[in-house]
Design a protein that fits this description.
mainly alpha; disordered C terminus
Length: 459
């Protein structure tokens, strides 16, 4: 048995799988970017952690989280409303907010503690109501809202957040709350169609504020050892009215936190560390689910791409074994190949073109051809899905004389073997380019060492 030929066939196959894997990665990244899959999965996980859509909206609207999208908030447009309401313009004015696809655990705990510290204030509750109105308007597919309205709601929510951050019980707090309600009134005068929603949000905030005050009055007095942690505990108690689930979780994370504080560490820092661990554990589950999704997507995309390009591992193996000149040239190309260090372009059309460019000048059995006959393709002996004696494999285009054929067609192929070869290609490409590149380097090194002296003697 010619060990050198086997190694060269293996190198050729692995090289094809690597290039195909890079193509799949580009297409998969393009799809993930369009679907915003990572960000949506993270949003769903945080929604589950906070167990309240209004609290989740408030969390995502925090400047620390909002800054991760690198998108500055704009001032309201001065363009007249009638312009946005015109049918030709209305379809272009609805812009979806971009969510971050990654949130560091430190930013999560910082934003969550900031939200918790102000949870008992009426301004914070008004902010939640405003954000709910904004999200409902953005998600309502039957209603088109001009971007200027959404931006005004964002600014109103930002003003509410700033008002909630003032020290509770002071004259500044009362003045800020009064100004906030006045700004909300101005907004409803400008947009009377939203007056009912805003008034309902203000009334709901007032009702929740009363319930929170009752809860806080029943809370035991906290020791003044750590003012920050005491404020967080009061905020967590207030969250029991808004989101009982997150209240229970945070209470468990803050339970006896003082006993676990190390030297030089504050109680608040230890509490934040516990919350960061909770977030990291949740994100590990999200990452696991996304990895399984990515593997399945890679297999599906790999099969579709391999089918479109006719990358059949079985046929390719047989061809490389029969053609020593082609396999040696392919092995030489593989030995010079390096994985791209720069980020790949997420363009499916360019990805397919890059795949073809790697094999220019090599007569590999990759791709499809179209032939024509004199009669219907289904009756053509050279266009049979399961060819018999004196017949060749092809895929007839029903109702025409055209036939889709592989470049190196022979009667050893049939549809079942072809699909099996393509599926094996997709299965191999799903492993990823780094996996196969590591194996490629080892096999290339094995080829460069030459034959074993004992094998030469035996030959």
């Amino acid at each position: 048995m010619n060990l050198g030929a086997i190694i060269e066939v293996a190198i050729g196959l692995i090289f094809v799988w690597i290039v195909l894997s890079l193509t799949i990665i580009q297409i998969q990244e393009w799809i993930s970017t369009r679907l915003d899959k990572r960000a949506r999965d993270m949003e769903a996980a945080i929604q589950e952690m906070l167990a309240n859509p209004n609290l989740k909206a408030q969390f995502y609207d925090h400047p620390v989280i909002r800054g991760l999208t690198a998108k500055k908030r704009k001032q309201p447009s001065r363009t007249p409303a009638w312009f946005y309401n015109h049918p030709l313009v209305r379809g272009f004015t609805k812009e979806k907010r971009k969510l971050p696809s990654y949130i560091p655990s430190q930013q999560f705990s910082l934003a969550l503690f900031d939200v918790a510290m102000t949870a008992g204030t009426e301004s914070s509750l008004i902010q939640q109501g405003i954000l709910k109105i904004r999200d409902d308007l953005e998600n309502d597919k039957k209603m088109t809202v001009e971007e200027a309205v959404i931006e005004e709601l964002n600014l109103l929510a930002e003003f509410a957040r700033s008002a909630a951050a003032t020290e509770a019980g002071t004259a500044v707090t009362k003045a800020s709350l009064t100004t906030l309600k006045r700004e909300a009134k101005k907004f409803t005068e400008k947009h009377p169609e939203l007056e009912g929603l805003v008034d309902a949000a203000l009334k709901e905030a007032d009702r929740l504020k009363g319930e929170i005050d009752d809860v806080l009055e029943k809370q035991p007095k906290q020791k003044a050892t750590d003012a920050g942690l005491s404020q967080v505990r009061r905020g967590v108690a207030a969250l029991s009215v808004i989101s009982p689930e997150v209240n229970q979780t945070l209470n468990a994370l803050l339970l006896n936190v003082e006993e676990y504080v190390t030297q030089g560490e504050t109680n608040l820092a230890r509490a934040r560390k516990n919350v960061e661990t909770w977030f990291d554990d949740s994100m590990d589950r999200v990452s696991g689910a996304f990895k399984r999704y990515a593997q399945m997507m890679a297999l599906i995309i790999g099969f579709v791409v391999a089918l479109l390009l006719n990358v059949d591992s079985i046929d390719l193996t047989l061809y490389l074994w029969r053609e020593p000149a082609v396999r040696q040239a392919l092995a030489e190309n593989a030995a010079k190949f390096e994985l791209p260090q720069d980020q790949l372009e997420t363009d499916p059309e360019q990805a397919l073109q890059d795949f073809r460019d790697q094999f220019v000048g090599l007569s590999l059995p990759i791709g499809w051809g179209i032939t024509g006959g004199t009669g219907p393709a289904v009756n053509d002996a050279n266009c049979q899905l399961f060819p018999g004696v004196d017949q060749t494999f092809g895929i007839p285009i029903f109702g025409s004389t055209k036939c889709i054929v592989p470049p190196q067609s022979n009667n050893q192929n049939n549809l079942a073997v072809k699909l099996l070869g393509i599926f094996l290609t997709a299965l191999a490409a799903r492993q990823g380019a780094p996996f196969w590149f590591d194996i490629l380097k080892r096999v290339v090194n094995l080829r460069s060492t030459g034959a074993n002296p004992n094998e030469k003697a035996a030959g």
